[in-house]
Amino acid sequence: SYLRWLGAGMQVPEGERDWETYVRGVSRGFRGRIPRWIVWHIPDRDGPLSVAPAKFARMLDVACREVKRYNPKAEVLVGSLSLERGVPYLAALLQASPKAKFDAVCLDLSMGNEPPEYGFLLEAVDAFRTLLKQHGVAPGSWPRTWTGRPARGWS
Questions:
Q1: CA nearest 58: which of 27, 19, 104?
Q2: Any long-range contacts for 84-91 (C-beta under 8 Å, 24+ apart)?
Q3: What is the spatial distance between Cα 145 and Cα 79, in angstroms, rounded to a whole number?
Q4: Model-level pTM?
Q5: Residue 104, SS3 per DSSP
Q6: Mean pLDDT lowest for which of 63-67, 96-100, 134-138, 151-155?
Q7: What is the pLDDT of residues 31-62, one digit of tens each?
Q8: Residues in CB range of 47: below 8 A, 6 or more apart
Q9: Residue 112: is its pLDDT beyond 90?
């Protein structure tokens, strides 16, 4: 089953204080050595590692504050959002935290066995860009690949 390989090490934090303690400890321990932090890979997924947008907004606010406390030049990226559910998830996230201070949004570009022409890839990227623009998010924050590197021609 999905949970069998997951183990007890990965879980959505129950309390904000737990998350804050964790992020503070990690960002302090790696102070200045990590230029880019991706917060929660695919939070819009189904299953035990999914995070509701309002809760993720609070987690992201904490991560931005703590990471930048120990490395003001570090980038904090929204963990890879899926192409299928990412736009409504990001809309809910921005509604829950209109002044979110993240530096970029990552996209999970996996399309399974589908060729790119069937994957609505360009339409999805355009939808993300439109949403971010409507919320006044700077173009530098627009979608990046899951590696966190800017995707050619997207910004």
A1: 19
A2: 85/44, 85/45, 86/44, 86/124, 86/128, 87/124, 87/127, 87/128, 87/131, 89/43, 89/44, 89/53, 90/128, 90/131, 90/132, 91/131
A3: 10
A4: 0.79
A5: strand
A6: 151-155
A7: 999 998 999 988 998 888 899 999 999 999 99
A8: 2
A9: no
Structure tokens at 50: 């999914």
Please give the Cα distance from 132 to 125 (Å, whole number).
11
Average pLDDT of the chain to the nearest whole number: 80
Q: Are 148 and 38 in contact (CB under 8 A)?
A: yes
Could you tell me what percent of the chain has a pLDDT over 90? 37
* Cβ pair 155, 142 in contact under 8 A: yes
Strands ordered across the beta sheet of 104-108: 36-39, 75-82, 104-108
Question: In residues, how long is the chain?
Answer: 155
Tokens encoding 99: 């002044």
Contact 43, 81 (CB under 8 A): yes
